[in-house]
Every structure is written in structure tokens, then in C-alpha cells.
Write a structure and sequence with these properties.
191 residues; mainly alpha; 0% strand; globular
Length: 191
């Protein structure tokens, strides 16, 4: 039976790529920790995370580009006034919206769909989305790499702690996500 290091070495880049296509912050940070342990190469971990993040957003953009407002309502409900405000903001700050959508909580999945429905050109979206994905992946994988360094310094070998570290990171990420979503819903309950 292969150990965890062998599994990560063989499938880690694929896991990073696929995990980053979704809302993959936790997977991306874990990729940085794996790079710190030299189970993955740091640069290739960043490339895999950036490629997965960019491809996932491009696919969502194409859904919005093809199906327009119907796709937005399917993903985000029937909040027409909110969608119109988002589209107006996208038209005013197109490049910034494309670059930064992955950094805004609650917009990671619906954001590219809204941008696609806002008549942004595919070439513009691909360019600024790719730049955003590179920065996002570098920050998160790099953060995981640094966290791996701190973790190793204080607790020693990571291998002995993986059985509780990975579930703990997932639980913490889910709790933070739940709290942010609850806070976001409370702030926008009047919309």
C-alpha cells in the first residue's frame, strides 16, 4: 500500500488542478504544504492551481456568455436588481472585476457567469482571468508553503500529523465559509 507522500507525488498536481476548478482554496493551500515537504514542486503546484482555477472560471464564463441572465438566475436565484447592479459595476470596472472575482467571497462561482452575461469579450476575460488565477494560486500555494514551514518548525514532521491536519483544515475552511456566508446573507437580507 502506497504511503501518503507517494499518493501526493503521483496525483497531487491532478488533485490541485481539479480542486482549483471548484472553490479550491483548501486544496490549493494543501498543495503549498505538499510543496514545502517536497512532495510537489512549488512552481508546478502554482501552475496546476492557476490552470485549474482559470479553466473553471472560463467554463463558467462561457455558460454566462451563452445563456445570459437565465444562467445567472439558475445559479443565483431571481435577484434581478442585484444582478443589474453587478452588471453595471462590471461595465464600469471590467478588468478589475475579471481579475478580482476569485478573491471575492460568494462570487467565485456566480461571478464568471455574470461577467459572461455582461457582454465581455472572451479574449478580455481569458487574459484578465488568467492573470487573476496566477496571482491567486501564487498567494494560496505560497501561503500553504509558508504554513508548512511554520508547522514543521513547531510540530516536526508533517507526516505524523496528516491524519488530523487535513480534516482540521477542511473543518476550519468550512466553518469560515459558513460564517462568511451567514454574515453576507445577513448584510444582504434587505436586497
Amino acid at each position: 500500500m502506497p504511503n501518503i507522500a507517494d499518493l501526493i507525488h503521483h496525483y497531487g498536481y491532478l488533485a490541485l488542478f481539479l480542486g482549483s476548478m471548484l472553490e479550491g482554496e483548501t486544496v490549493t493551500i494543501l498543495g503549498g504544504i505538499a510543496a514545502h515537504r517536497q512532495w510537489l514542486d512549488l512552481v508546478w503546484a502554482i501552475v496546476a492551481a492557476a490552470a485549474g482555477g482559470a479553466l473553471g472560471d472560463i467554463l463558467l464564463f462561457l455558460v454566462g456568455h451563452r445563456y445570459g441572465v437565465r444562467a445567472i438566475q439558475r445559479f443565483g436565484g431571481n435577484k434581478t436588481a442585484h444582478i443589474e447592479r453587478m452588471q453595471a459595476s462590471i461595465h464600469r470596472h471590467q478588468y478589475l472585476a475579471i481579475f478580482g472575482v476569485r478573491f471575492l467571497y460568494g462570487l467565485r462561482l456566480i461571478g464568471p457567469v455574470v461577467i459572461g452575461a455582461s457582454h465581455v469579450t472572451i479574449a478580455t476575460f481569458v487574459l484578465f482571468n488568467l492573470l487573476g488565477a496566477i496571482v491567486w494560486a501564487t498567494l494560496l500555494v505560497g501561503g500553504g508553503y509558508l504554513f508548512g514551514s511554520v508547522f514543521t518548525h513547531y510540530l516536526g514532521s508533517i507526516e505524523g500529523h496528516l491524519l488530523w491536519l487535513i480534516p482540521l483544515l477542511i473543518v476550519v475552511a468550512l466553518l469560515v465559509r459558513w460564517w462568511l456566508k451567514r454574515r453576507h446573507d445577513q448584510q444582504h437580507s434587505g436586497d
